[in-house]
Structure formats: structure tokens, C-alpha cells
Specification:
The structure is a homodimer. Chain A is of the alpha/beta class. The termini of chain A are far apart.
Amino acid sequence: MNTIQYESQTEKWGVFELSCLGPETGNPFVEQKISADFYAENQTVTVKGFYDGAGIYKVRFMPSFEGRYCFCVRASFLKEEVTGEFLVTSPREGNHGPVRVAGTYHLAYEDGTPYYSVGTTCYVWELQSDERIAQTLRSLKEARFNKIRFCIFPKHYDYNLGEPRSYPYEGTPMDSSVLTKENFSFYTGKTEGNHWDFTRFHPAHFRHIETCILELQKLGIEADLIVMHPYDRWGFSCMTKEQDDLYWKYVIARFAAYRNVWWSLANEYDLMEHKTIADWERYAEIICKEDKYSHLRSIHNCHGFYDYSRPWVTHCSIQRQEPYLSAEYVDTWRARYKKPVILDEICYEGNIQFGWGNIDGEELLRRFWEAACRGGYAGHGETLMNPENVLWWSHGGVLRGESHKRFGFLYDILCETPGLGLAPYDWKWDCVCAVPECEFLKKVKSYYLFYYGFTRPCFKEFEIDPETEFEIEVIDTWNMTIEKQGTGKGKFRVELPGRKYMAVHLKKTNCEKCEK
Amino acid sequence: MNTIQYESQTEKWGVFELSCLGPETGNPFVEQKISADFYAENQTVTVKGFYDGAGIYKVRFMPSFEGRYCFCVRASFLKEEVTGEFLVTSPREGNHGPVRVAGTYHLAYEDGTPYYSVGTTCYVWELQSDERIAQTLRSLKEARFNKIRFCIFPKHYDYNLGEPRSYPYEGTPMDSSVLTKENFSFYTGKTEGNHWDFTRFHPAHFRHIETCILELQKLGIEADLIVMHPYDRWGFSCMTKEQDDLYWKYVIARFAAYRNVWWSLANEYDLMEHKTIADWERYAEIICKEDKYSHLRSIHNCHGFYDYSRPWVTHCSIQRQEPYLSAEYVDTWRARYKKPVILDEICYEGNIQFGWGNIDGEELLRRFWEAACRGGYAGHGETLMNPENVLWWSHGGVLRGESHKRFGFLYDILCETPGLGLAPYDWKWDCVCAVPECEFLKKVKSYYLFYYGFTRPCFKEFEIDPETEFEIEVIDTWNMTIEKQGTGKGKFRVELPGRKYMAVHLKKTNCEKCEK
């Protein structure tokens, strides 16, 4: 009888891992199966395991409750079931569980702690050198990002045409030195010269990504995993249906037990010309079936949105579709989809030639505030040219821009909002105004956040309610200062500096608490 | 027999004026009539005259041809017709005649000289002190504006609540010291306390405006006269139909002979709640009938556009209708109305609390360039707070902003475009591109003007035609520099500084001339 290896205890929402030895012969990825049932007072779950190479098979599980769990392992290579038990302890500090949709338009960790998304994109930061990966983690921490979008597959696109540190499959890549701009377009899915066995994964590639997911987890950062994408010279974007499904199941078996994982089915799904809507729906079906923890699920567009009203889509993961407006549509999209609106791509702070990567830090920060005050969440990226040709958006590394220094300030203000999250409020045509999402707090006129964007009034007059007294704060969103201007009641006037990117915060003094 | 006074000669498109004495008794404005026929080889026109007070009656005429003209005056107080003749000389330098629509979307003086509108708004600059009027004229000249919008009636609105230098009617105004924000809203048309005789004009008010129109003419500036408006505490916005018609006819009889006059039926016509579409159409009918020179005609909106497709409307005179986009719609509006698109109000450079008056100079200049590259024309205004409470948009005076210093640079570039005016060209999604309006020049790929607005690429790649060679200019629209970067053919790359508000100019070397 094989020995099953496991730790005798794990924390709630931690990863409990079973491993055992099995056959190395044949093709273990497709010929062998392993799964386990997990039982506790409040939970019964069956999860599939995976082959991790070198004869090692693993099953991973994320327990959602504290207390004693039993398991029962079955495998094609095991003569009989193997059972055991382990203890789930209370979560350690900083472990709030996976992020869930909360209150229709917002997000919260499973323990109820609100999660205000401040995300960035570094497509293949984890496929860089160890040194750069460490640098990226330091940058992420310093900028206080709490989400990062990145790809499992390597990426072939401008500024990122080299070889990744590893490949997901056994085999050899094409010789990229034969490529020129003329004979290669990233989304044609041409695969000449590649020699992969799409039935044999390269476990080290995935193990490395797991290390990175865990590093992010330690920093409180969600890993928004882009499972498929079109920037490809290796053929990973045009595998067969069976190959795709094998990949999806392997990815889920390996990654789903990490509490900070989100599923992004694809980046710019609509550029993947070999895939149909039926394919995307099938992948979604696989996730819904195989991911026992219901991690957040979405899909990111280029030209046109995926139908975010599909039941499996937990939140919108939007790329803006116009050169001028982006965050300004958050309220429209909230109303349309009745889901959290995350603007993962609204033009990066940068100076490259493409219009999706050349706005300045002021404008990107403006879009963040605009999105926040309309009840949504914007995302960052950086495409600033530099002599090393290391662009944050693709490689990670150091942050060179200006906007990232100012997201933490916004985040702190979001954390102070009463209730969970902000909702847009139709105040006047010439500014955005946010109120608490909570109906009770809205009704008692507890809180108003006015944002003036690129306009620069040197004062504003208010008249909200004759009886309600408000504490007045003038917020400089760029310089990150908050100036208290006493209180106001009935009609009152707030002095402003006549600069751009200012906000006014009105908070009801002695506000009632929401009973919810 | 009365003596008719007149000069024996005038220049083409100058004002030829006949004057004579008549009765002062009764109400000459409504009881007497005077008109004259003018004859020349190519022109026969009958124009109505007006009573100018103190027993003086006048008839004004703008001749459109050189050579000998005859006239024949008739008046209710003249026993018989009086005839005479005068010589029309060639226009003096700088006199290009009235501005006309040219080539569907653009404008030109009657002598064929292109007119690229660079306008501003100072609603009642001409009703200020002589000193401030002189200052405004100096400012207009220095900034090289070639159009100014202003009102004939005085204005009652924030920052402009005092008495004007004169009133258009005989009578006395209300005591404005009784007004508070609470008991007076500018567009209710309440008239208590005013005592006017709406059948008796105050000629000095109009004579003064004529002086101002002439001063503008000397500077080559078009007078876009706002004949009606809603910012009123005197009742001028809610006269009866008969009173309105009398006013319109008086205005036309006095002002139409000045070649630099444009008719703006109203500012924010839709705020004038006492007027109906039928009223506006009736005023338009009066202009079309009484203005023998067919000066440009339009009407300016607040919330919703007037139907610019009405045949009498010569061009769109637009106030933007959204807080974010304005100039970006020029091509849409061109396509919809098939007329010149002038954006007379797209938010002023300023820092007042209202969202229509608090953008910075960079953003206003951006809107000018955006409008120009889409084949339209933007308008300036300034609402910068200052200790004297003298805001350019209302009073004129000195310019305190940054944008006005940079319109002349744009104007010079427009003057250099081949053919008449620019047309939008669908290049790529992330910039605007202008080409000549002329089909021939478009076809031969003569000229491209790319504008990058708030994006800041540090280079751009071009591929227009394998055979066409272009002279490359990099334009910094803010710093007003033009850097020549040699020539490009086939695929070429243009280096940019990675700053905002840049443009690239590509001009075909050895370009064919348009034969038209």
C-alpha cells in the first residue's frame, strides 16, 4: 500500500495537500486519475488531483471551516481507498479567505472584510528571472496593490519577444530568431517549428507559478490568473478542444486550492480567433464544475465585451472600448450587468505609441477616482519606455510612473466609507458624487464624496438638507492631502484651491450606524 | 424738400449711409417709415431705414459691387422720393467682405479669402466703461481672435449683476438692490419694477454698439451678435410678439450693413421659457427677409440643440451637451447637419464653480485642436476669478489664462492647409487625423495632420503609401514649436517627446496643386 503524505493540520482557507507516489510509466497526465473526498461537519467535497512529475501525485484542498476533517483518497493506481484526517485551525492574521461578490456591486473576503480592488497588470512577471520577480513583489507591496493580473502561458508581443523561463508543456519551442514583424502576427496562431506534447505538462512551470501565487498571498494580493490569451507564437492559443480541456482541468486541480486565485478565462478573448463562444462557455462549465471553491470568474475583452450577464460571470473585467471615456461608464455598466465592475484596462500610464498605453499618471489616477465614485474599481498598468526595455505591464520590475504612488491614498478613503462600497449618486451634471451603497446609510444622508476630476473650481456651494450637519473635508487626490474645513449645515460653501483632481468629502456628524 | 445727407463714395462692403431730418413728434419709431432702393449694374436692393432720435432718420446699405450706384429714398414724412448716386470703390486693404459658408463645412470671406474661425465670448464687453472696452479691443487683437460673441441687451447673471452703461429702451430699470438670490432667478422673466416703453428705442445704446462693431471690423474681427438671451431682470426676454418683431427690425435696419455682423438669434434659446419654436422661426423669417446681405445666421443652445438642419441656419453654433466630450463630436455633427460646425461653448478656461467654466488652458487648447482636426472650429471664453470680479467671458478686459496665447499658432497652421479647411480622416482609433477637405488633395495624399491630445507617445510609426514622400514636422501645440524631421516614405518612424498635446504634420513633397 502506498503512503499518503500530508500535514496533520492546516489553517482555514489554507492549502491542505495530499501526495503519494504512483506510476511514472506511460503518460501519467492522461492515463492516471487521483481524487479525494473531504468531510467535515459543514462540508463534503470531492476534488481531483494531478500528476506533479517524478512519480508524484497530489490532491489539494482548501477547507472552509475549522475543526476536524476526514479524507478518502482514490486513484487509478491505488488498489484501495486511503483515508485519514487532519485538523483545520483558525485562520492566521491576514488570512480573510477568498474574495467573494458582496452586495451586488462590491467584493469582500469570505470572513466579511471588505475588499476594495486596487489592481495592476504584469502579464508575465512570474516568468522573469528570480531577481526581477523579487523586485516585482517589492514594488507591488510598496504600491499597495491588492490584485495582479497575469498569464499562465508565456507571452509573445511587442517588448516581450524573448523566451520565458519555462514552458507549460514538454517539448521544444520554435526558433524565434526567424521571426520578423512581417512574417508573424501574434494572433494568427501559426505554430510551425514548435514541437510540444500537449498531453504532457511541464510540472515545474506550474510549481513555479504556485510559488508566485503564495508570495502574492503573503502580501495580501489576489492572483487574477489569465488562463488563456492570444499573444502566442507557440500554439498554446490554438490547441484542440481535448487539449484545452486537459489544460483547464490541470490548471484547476493545481491552483484552485489557493484562496487568492481568481479566474480570468482569457485576456482579449475576442482576439483568439480559434475559439468560439461555445468554447468559452465550455471552459466556464469546467471551472464551475471542477473549482469547488467558486473563485471569482470573468473574461477580458479587446473590442467587444463578453456577455457579462452570463450566470457564471461573477464580475465584469473590462477593457475600455473608446479612446476618451472609460471609467465614466461604470454606472451604466453596473446598471446593465448588476455585478461588480472592474476596469482592468483603461489605458496604462505610459508613453508607447499605442493609444492603450500612453496616458500620464494624472489621467490614470483620475480614472481610478472616477471609477470609485461611480461604484466601480479601476486597474493600473505601466508602459513607460526605458533603456532596459522592461515594461511593468509585461515584465513587472520597478514602477517608474506617478499614479501608483497615489492609489493607497484612495484605498484608505474607500476603507473608511460606511457600509460596503460606494454607489453613484445623481448630484449635478458637472461632477461625480458617491454615496454609500447601503440604502439605510443613503437614506440618513450619512456620506457624500464629490470628485471634480479635470475641472478646477475654486469653491463649491452645497445645499443637501436643512437639518443635517456635515463634517467637511477637502481632498487633494494628487497631492494626497486632506484639509478639514469644519462643519456645514443647510447652505454652505467649501473653498477649493482651483486645481484639478480635487474632491470634497461630506460626512454626517454623529451619524447613525447601519444595523445590517 | 428735406435734404438727404450722404457721402459721395464708399468702398465695396463698406457702409453707405443716407440720413435726413424728419418729425420728432408722436412716436417716430412706429409711426414713421423710411426705406431706399439701391441700383447698380449687378444689384438692386430695397432696404429699410430707422429712426436714430433727435429727428434724424437713416438708411444704411452695404454695396456688394464696385462702380456707380443710384438710390431712391421714400419716407412716410417725405412728400416725394429723393434720388441720388454714389461711387463704390474697391475695398481697402483688410476688407474681404462678409463671411460666407464655403465648401459645405467651412467659411470664407466674400472675396474668397478663407476664414478660419477663432472666436471668443464676452457677453457684454461693449456695455462696460470706455476704458475697459479699449482694453478688450487690445486683448482681442493681441490674442488674434477673429470672432467675438456678444449681446445687444444687457445681462443679468452671476458676476454681472450691476447696471449696464445704457439701456436699449426709453424708461427706467428696476431697483436691483432689492434682488437676492432667493427672489430672483435669471430666466423667470419677472419684470416688476421696470418701466420701459418697448415702442421707443434708445438710439444711443445702439449707436454705441455700432461704434464697437466698427472697432472690431478694423481689427478683422467678426461680431457674432446675440440678439436675444435669457439673463434678464428687465423684461427684455419676455416682451410681446409685436415688441419682439419691432426690436428685430430695428436691429437689422441698424446693424445689417456692417459686413462683419453675424446673427446669433439667441444664447441658450432653450432657457427662454417665454419663447416657442414658432417665435424663433418667425425671427429667422424676419432676418431672412430684412437682412439683404444674408449674414451668417445661427442660434445657440443650453440643454438641447436647435434643429440646425433648418434651411435658414447657416452653421451650427454649439454648446456642448456633456461634461466630458465636446470637440470629439465635430465629425458626427458635420455628418448630421452638413454645415460648418462652430463650438461656441465647450467649457471656458476658468475656475468658477460651474462645470461650464472651470477647465484649464491645456484642456481648452486640446479641444481647439481636436475640433480643428475633425473639421470644425472651437470657441474660447475665460472665467478666471480675480479680485476685481472682472471675468472676460462677461466683461472682457484683460486675458488672464493660458490658452488664448496659443490660438494664433493653430490659426497659422490652418492658414497653411492646402485648399479650404480640414476634414476628419479615419486613421487609427487612438488619434485624430485631418486631411484637406478638397477631394483632389485628399486623393493625391497631399497632407495629413495627426493630433495626439492627452496621449503622449514617444514615437509613432507610419505607413501611408509606398511611393509618396512626406515632409515630416513634429508640432508641439502647447509650446508652439515645429520641429522638422526630414522626409519619410513607405514605412517610417517619427520620434516624439512623450509629452501631451503633440501633433505630426505630413506634407507631400512636390505636391500637385488643386486645380479648383
